[in-house]
Structure formats: C-alpha cells, structure tokens
Amino acid sequence: MNGVWQEPPPGRHTPELSVILPVLNEATYIEGVVRHIVRTLEAEPIQYQLVLIENGSTDGTGDVLSRLAAQNQRIVMGVAPRRGWGAAILTGYQLATGTYVAHMPSDGQIDPRVLPELLAVVRRGGVDIAKIKRVRRESWLRAAVSRSYNVLANILFRAALADVNGCPKMYRA
C-alpha cells in the first residue's frame, strides 16, 4: 500500500474515529500497543479504525503491521513515501475515513484511555482540536525547552495552550 486513500470494503461502516499511529522500528512492541488500543476502544461504544503507518523501519515492523491488518478489518496499514513523523501523519490522514481523526506515538507512551475522553470533547463541539497536556518531562532541559516553545507558539498564534505539542491530538476530519 502506498498511502493512497481507498474506499472501505462493501458492508464496512464508516468509523467515527480514526487513530493514526506512525510506526518506526517498533517490531518488538507494536503488537502489544495495538492490542491495548483495540481493547480500550472496543470497551466503549466507538466505531473506530486504526491506521498504522510504516515509516522506514529496518527491524521487521512492516511484517508485524501487515499481519495485524490481516487479522482485524478495523486496522489499515499504509507506508509513508518518505521517512519522518510528518510524512507518516500526512499518509495516515490520506487513509483515515473517520468522522474524527487522532494521531499519537506508537511506542506505548500514551495511555489509550485518553482517546474516549478526547472523543467526548470533540463530540460536544465548540472546539477545533482536543489534546492532552503532558504533566511530566524527561528532564529539566526538556521542560525548559518545552516551556519556551509553548510561550513562543502562544504569542505567535494567539493561542492559550499549556502544551502545544501534547499528543494525542484529535480533530473533526
């Protein structure tokens, strides 16, 4: 698959939520991460789609993603045309068919239980984007850089966000 949007198979309903996961060299962990997301979303009344984007892995991740997509019709696999987080996200948006779309890291650092909470926020309306706020940073340096970046982004874009880059982010498609 080359990242080109495809019509859902006959009989398949359009999902309410598409979750994009850019995946790079996660062959060891991605299956557990995907299963955790699937369990979380299936415990809720959410029609969902997982969009797994292979992003230039060298460890067999693509084979794992292909197998996961073959086992679950709610999982779509794509391949980013070039390496990089942004290219993978854009490829995922081309494949996503949900009314709402979210993207998040694929390494398990995000608890998928935030997805239903974010979906509830965007369902209510009145917002263009819903996202989480990170409360811990890896180091004091990361915290300082992040704080500076957030101040600059809020000034430039006249926003009032505590954490501009927090993921997952969720939008109306």
SSE topology string? EHEHEHEHEHE
Beta strand count: 6
State which percent range the strand residues make up: 15-25%
Structural class comes to alpha/beta
Q: Looking at the structure, what is the overall shape? A: globular
Main sheet strand line-up: 3-2-1-4-6-5
**Rg from C-alpha positions?**
16 Å
Contiguous helical run count:
5
Nearest-integer average pLDDT: 84
Provide a descriptive summary of the structure in words.
With 173 residues, this protein is an alpha/beta fold. It is built from 5 helices and 6 strands; from the N terminus they run E-H-E-H-E-H-E-H-E-H-E. It has helices at 30-42, 61-71, 85-95, 114-124, 140-157; strands at 17-23, 48-54, 75-79, 100-103, 129-131, 169-172. A 6-stranded mixed β-sheet has the order 3-2-1-4-6-5, with helices on both faces. The longest helix is centred in the last third of the chain and has 18 residues, at 140-157. It is globular. The model is unreliable at 1-8 (pLDDT under 50).
Using brief descriptors, characterize the structure shown.
173 residues, alpha/beta, 6-stranded mixed β-sheet, disordered N terminus
